[in-house]
């Protein structure tokens, strides 16, 4: 238990308001390997999606009680066809949005044999659990930078659609944790404006964040939300297969930045008994999130957890 949580418990016992909204971490809520989870809230059903496992390209789980209890649909592949540009068993870190016209759009990363890197692409379905039909071409590859991974959709208050994703510089190699021990490669987070179809990129992507010395070899897993007029970009830093992996965030007054990293991460190893928490996806309203934590390093196994989020201005806590 973190010091903050101990203080919280103590102040609750003493009847003092510490954070005023008493928030919590729950889980594991899916006790199966379910890394990099995304969340989609619909009126009656909440969905979670995750990185490939076994021969399932994109895993899917459902909750009928607002994210409290979850059922892994363990025979279901939301993305049985990964698209002509991609290969199976290479799909990572999906995200799904409801386009509002009866179509759901899934963003995902997969290995492109022609680029020899991961690229990000999109697929559509009229059913949230899929099967999703992939677009013929990826959205972005960023091949010289090491590939593109970890896409997530965002819709601004004016209706404009975007995606954010990571340029996978830490895949370029160089030894050490996640192959970027000396920090010689950038792992920029990119913001890409999208057409109203949420599938077609508009103009060029812009960089909104990058790794710094405090982030170890990388930052990744970006998700953008708008909270009370502030753009909030959650991300993970450090190497995913170490206990330094964490969940952090940065905030900005406008969508293109400048983004300021929070002075301390949202969740790190040791908080609530978690190891290597990461891959978080908050709901668009910023009240709740899904994330994974490591339960075994060999073979690497990451279960899904949830947390309610509270805010003090632009400071997040769980
Ligand atoms: C919110 O943040 C302000 C400024 O840092 C601090 O003074 C205040 O105590 C915080 N409120 C709560 C409820 O934590
Ligand atoms: C949600 O559930 C209610 C009550 O069962 C039902 O009337 C409604 O049609 C459902 N909505 C959707 C989108 O499935
Ligand atoms: C995908 O992974 C599954 C489970 O590990 C394996 O059985 C299958 O052969 C793999 N498919 C390909 C095309 O590599
Ligand atoms: C889920 O949340 C909605 C909206 O807050 C509420 O109307 C509904 O009763 C909740 N459902 C359950 C099962 O808790
Ligand atoms: C799928 O779920 C069922 C029921 O929970 C369980 O018996 C089975 O072992 C699971 N299969 C896999 C591959 O996890
Ligand atoms: C929203 O932000 C404004 C300042 O921009 C602040 O006065 C207000 O308390 C915030 N509301 C919430 C719910 O955080």
Automatic annotation (TrEMBL):
PANTHER family reported in the protein's UniProt record: BETA-XYLOSIDASE (PTHR42812), ENDO-ARABINASE (PTHR42812:SF5)
Q: Which residue positions does UniProt flag as site: Important for catalytic activity, responsible for pKa modulation of the active site Glu and correct orientation of both the proton donor and substrate?
A: 150
Coiled-coil features, chain-numbered ranges: none
Gene3D superfamilies attached to this UniProt entry: Glycosyl hydrolase domain, family 43
Report what the protein is called: Glycoside hydrolase family 43 protein
Q: Which Pfam families match?
A: Glyco_hydro_43
Instruction: Show which residues constitute the signal peptide.
Output: 1-23
**Which keywords annotate this record?**
Glycosidase, Hydrolase, Signal
Listed CDD domains: GH43_ABN-like (cd08999)
InterPro entries, per the entry: Glyco_hydro_43, Glyco_hydro_beta-prop_sf, Glycosyl_Hydrlase_43
Q: Where is the active site?
A: 36 (proton acceptor), 220 (proton donor)
Q: Which GO terms describe its molecular function?
A: hydrolase activity, hydrolyzing O-glycosyl compounds
């Amino acid at each position: 238990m973190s010091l903050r949580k101990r203080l919280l418990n103590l102040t609750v016992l003493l009847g003092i308001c510490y954070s005023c909204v008493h928030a919590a971490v729950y889980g594991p809520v899916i006790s199966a390997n379910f890394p990099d989870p995304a969340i989609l809230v619909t009126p009656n059903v909440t969905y979670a999606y995750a990185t490939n496992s076994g021969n399932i390209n994109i895993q899917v789980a459902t909750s009928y009680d607002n994210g409290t209890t979850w059922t892994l649909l363990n025979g279901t592949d939301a993305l049985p066809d990964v698209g002509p540009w991609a290969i199976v068993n290479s799909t990572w870190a999906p995200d799904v949005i409801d386009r509002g016209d009866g179509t759901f759009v899934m963003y995902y990363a997969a290995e492109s044999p022609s680029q020899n890197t991961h690229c990000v692409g999109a697929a559509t379905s009229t059913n949230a659990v899929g099967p999703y039909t992939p677009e013929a071409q990826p959205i972005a590859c960023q091949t010289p930078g090491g590939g593109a991974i970890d896409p997530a959709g965002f819709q601004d208050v004016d209706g404009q659609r975007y995606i954010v994703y990571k340029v996978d510089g830490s895949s370029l190699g160089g030894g050490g944790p996640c192959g970027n021990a000396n920090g010689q490669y950038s792992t920029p987070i990119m913001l890409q404006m999208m057409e109203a179809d949420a599938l077609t990129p508009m103009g060029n992507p812009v960089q909104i964040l990058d790794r710094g010395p405090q982030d170890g070899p990388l930052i990744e897993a970006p998700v953008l939300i708008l909270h009370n007029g502030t753009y909030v970009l959650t991300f993970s830093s450090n190497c995913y297969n170490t206990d330094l992996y964490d969940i952090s965030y940065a905030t900005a007054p406008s969508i293109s930045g400048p983004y300021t990293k929070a002075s301390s991460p949202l969740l790190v190893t040791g908080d609530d008994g978690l190891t290597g928490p990461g891959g978080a996806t908050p709901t668009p309203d910023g009240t709740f999130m899904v994330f994974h934590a490591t339960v075994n390093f060999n073979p690497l196994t990451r279960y899904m957890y949830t947390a309610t989020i509270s805010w003090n201005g632009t400071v997040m806590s769980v």
